[in-house]
Amino acid sequence: MNKITAAITAVGAYVPEDVLTNKMLEKMVETTDEWITTRTGIKERRILKDPTKGTSYLAIQAAKKILEKTNLDPKEIDLVIMATATPDMPVASTGVYVATEIGATNAFSYDLQAACSSFLYGMSTAAAYIEAGRYKKVLVIGADKMSSIIDYTDRTTCIIFGDGAGAVLMEPNNEGYGLQDEILRSDSIGRESLKIEAGGSILPPTEETVAKKLHFVRQDGKTVFKFAVSNMAEVSEEIMKRNNLTNEDVDWLVAHQANKRIIDATANRMNLHDENKVLMNIQRYGNTTSATLPLLLSDYEKNFKKGDNLIFASFGGGFTWGAAYLKWAYNS
Ligand code: UT7
Fold it and tell me: Any idea where the domains of the chain sit in the sequence?
């Protein structure tokens, strides 16, 4: 009997309409379009301006795209994994709300938080359930309303992040398509380098934490950059080696969109010199945290062919990072 693999069978995405350009940021903090473009590759990002809407809104729109495209009855979905670093609320799972709102009333759901690696970890979890034969239709959604945790007076973070959502449907495959291999890692050496200090169990919210702006993301960009370049590149190279893949065999690099220089460094380490193989949309969306990978899949879906070899790579706060090798399962 053929081994069951877990394949991506549909993709959906959503970004809010409001655009925050580098030129607009020039008026908000001391920065320039030139600095942002050369240091990060970002030109603009999307912002969910409606204060009554949270991450669930973005996630629901992305998930609905999949339902529309596939005509899938949402009652057939077994599990919804909601990958996010910005849940609607600290308690009362965002995933549960999203699943109910899209009509996935026979599914169970939970949130998965691993910063920028949340979606990759979520795909791994979904695949494990599917390979084991436990569940057949798993929706993995990556969504973040990063604008809700960004200090728009801090030029070292506000230029980077944006809001967005993407989703994939994963299902069993008996022809060998889907997830082939993965290397997932984490190390708390990064705990101090990228964090929101207050609002958790160590430092619950007080007037003082609000006054000191401790509920926003802060990062030591240089340190994060250094670890991101070395760790993301290392696992990407390793996953190629242990699957006997050369740069010719890799059709697409699907890398977390945090900084164009980090993506380029990873591609270089993989000997991927054909820039058409390196998926890139950071210029339009910035770093959307859990949404970067599925947003790339959605933007480039039409380019993928059945049997193409995709390497996923991510790096995020914690630190969390990893790489995955997936064989694309369909022609669009
Ligand atoms: O999703 C995973 C998590 N995040 C990441 O992966 C981000 C990783 N880090 C980075 O992408 C980069 O470190 C940044 C884009 C955050 C910063 O780029 P950098 O090349 O590492 O700049 P830097 O922090 O070394 O700063 C260089 C200079 C500094 O000025 P001095 O000290 O040389 O005078 C900064 O104060 O640039 C200054 N600077 C800015 N200047 C204009 C910092 N931010 C800005 C800005 N505009 N927005």
Answer: 5-178, 180-327
Residue with tokens 């994963």: 170
Separation between Cα atoms, residue 158 and residue 89, nearest integer Å: 22
Are 266 and 313 in contact by the 8 Å Cβ rule? The answer is yes
Atom of ligand 1 nearest to the CA of 289: 1
**C-alpha of residue 36 to centroid of ligand 1, in Å:** 9
Q: What is the pLDDT of residues 54-82, one digit of tens each?
A: 999 999 999 999 999 999 999 999 999 99
Ligand 1, atom 21, lies closest to the CA of 222
Q: How far is CA 95 from CA 17, 61, 73, 273, in A?
A: 23, 13, 18, 39
- Concatenated DSSP letters for 185-243? EE-GGGTTTEE--SSSSSS---HHHHHTTTTS-EE-HHHHHHHHHHHHHHHHHHHHHHT
Q: What is the CATH T-level fold of the domain 5-178, as seen in this structure?
A: Peroxisomal Thiolase; Chain A, domain 1 (3.40.47)
Token pair in block for residue 210: 């609000």
Among protein residues, the one with the nearest Cα to ligand 1's atom 29 is: 156
CATH superfamily for 180-327 is Thiolase/Chalcone synthase (3.40.47.10)
pLDDT of residue 2: 76
| Structural contact between residues 153 and 279, judged by C-beta atoms closer than 8 angstroms | no
CA distance linking residue 114 with residue 122, whole number of Å: 9
Residue with tokens 């270089």: 268
- What pTM, to 2 d.p., does this model score? 0.97
The answer to whether the 5-178 and 180-327 domains have the same CATH topology is yes
Residues enclosing ligand 1, CB less than 6 A? 31, 35, 39-40, 116, 155-156, 159, 194, 221-222, 224-225, 228, 258-259, 262, 287, 315-316
As beta bridge partners, residue 316 has: 320
State in Å: Cα 283 to ligand 1 middle: 17
- Residues known to be catalytic: 116, 256, 287
The 10s digit of each residue's pLDDT in 113-136 is 999 999 999 999 999 999 999 999
